[in-house]
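Order emerges. As here.
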Amino acid sequence: IETTEHLHLLAALIYYSRLRFITNLLPIIQHAPSLRRIVTVGGAGKEGPLDANDFPALRVPLLQIRGHLTTLITLGLEAVARTAPEVSFVHDYPGTVNTPLMSHAKGVHGVLVRAFIGILGRWVCVPIEESGERHLYLATSARFPPAIGGSAGVRLGDGVSVAVGTTGETGSGVYPVGWDCESASPAVLELLAGLREKGMVDEIWRHTEGEYKRITAMD
């Protein structure tokens, strides 16, 4: 589905609006008196191949779109972080959480989702209370410091170290983490490194800013 701004609806919801919220609110966060952090819930750790000729994903096959959009989010956050190294950015994947959204799914998809949750939910779903606790941890723990400015947040317990960021370096300021609050796999970090070397962070951000200018000019 294409929006009135000529964006893929999923891309508009998952990427463009997300980064717009973040960039609009970033000046306030930069002036916070202590803990400066953004936690955005998406698909971290599920990054996949990126079609550099179709950032809006208008022609990306459905089976590849999650990886494409997740990569856009992670590298888009890297671009934003370059302008705000005193802010830390956490992109996380919450896992399958049985929220009321599951019960609102319609049609055959809704029936399949509810059947799946009913049969396997207790083994595959993260309890909603646990998910809330983990997101509170992501928002407050000193394990996810900004690139500059030192650590902030709840001090680390014994045996807990600062997390590895998107660049594969400890404490780099942008953190892709899974449902268990652990950093993305080496394979994902390798994928991101390859795209970074090709200049994709700059390319993505040029495209994103261009879309924002184009869309706001339509008002």
Summary: The first strand starts at residue 37 and ends at 41. Residues 9-30 form the longest helix (22 residues). The helical segments are 9-30, 62-83, 100-104, 107-124, 128-140, 186-197, 200-216.
